[in-house]
Amino acid sequence: MTTFARRKTQNGKKGKKYIEAAKLVDATKIYNPEEALALVKKADFAKFDATVEVAYRLALDPKKADQQIRGAVVLPNGTGKTARVIVFAQGDQAKQAEEAGADVVGAEDLVQRIQDGWMDFDVAVATPPMMAQVGRLGRVLGPKGLMPNPKTGTVTMDVTKAVNDIKAGQVAYRVDKAGIVHAPIGKVSFDDAKLFENFKMMNDTLVKARPASAKGQYIKSLTVTSTLGPGVKVDPAAF
After folding, report:
1. Three-state secondary-structure class, residue 92
2. Among 187, 113, 193, 127, which residue's Cα sits nearest to residue 158?
3. Is residue 231 within 8 Å of 5, Cβ to Cβ?
4. How many other CB atoms are found less than 10 A from the CB of residue 29?
5. What is the pLDDT of residues 111-120, one digit of tens each?
6. Which residues pair with 174 in a beta bridge?
7. Which of 77, 93, 145, 158 would you call most buried, defined as having the most Cβ atoms within 10 angstroms of its Cβ?
8. Average pLDDT over residues 61-88
9. At what angle do helices 159-168 and 91-100 cross, to 10 degrees?
């Protein structure tokens, strides 16, 4: 379920706190990034350290192979969460992964463990030689977005870099069937400058990822929000 889908209560009606928070946002206005982030923090009413997320609606047709953008970016100030990383590797790569701080490292045994139902991790990394075995997990990991992929740097022989990047705050992104990219850029508790730096890095990354075949205005709309709070429209040109 996306963040936007979680905005409503089970009976389909918006809660009182959300309605009050939404009054702080002018739905007809497009804010500059700094204003939008400040407003997101002001409108946040969660009792926990909410995640700040962005949603880019792009002028892409994901049905076309050359417009299925996907990748990963290391945010300069992290995400506010330390990801649990597993690594499928053997020999020297397995040792390197353990030394880099991977939470679980394994080969055939790890594949079997996941087949048996264990899923207590956030990111999976694999060396190329292991992909023949990891491929058996496609139906389990694929729908959850956890399948290792070279485009996101999670299929690699350099497992040390992969683990370090993920632990440092790497965020994977991909355009969905509706042409939208959702991504976290930090926590409400982050100071404004650090949150803006992360936002700019994500924006710069997606702009650079624009396919040559994309025509017209690339970013159709951009919204930033907290986990439970209202969305705030942002002018991407203001970066």
Report:
1. helix
2. 127
3. no
4. 12
5. 999 999 999 9
6. 70
7. 93
8. 94
9. 20
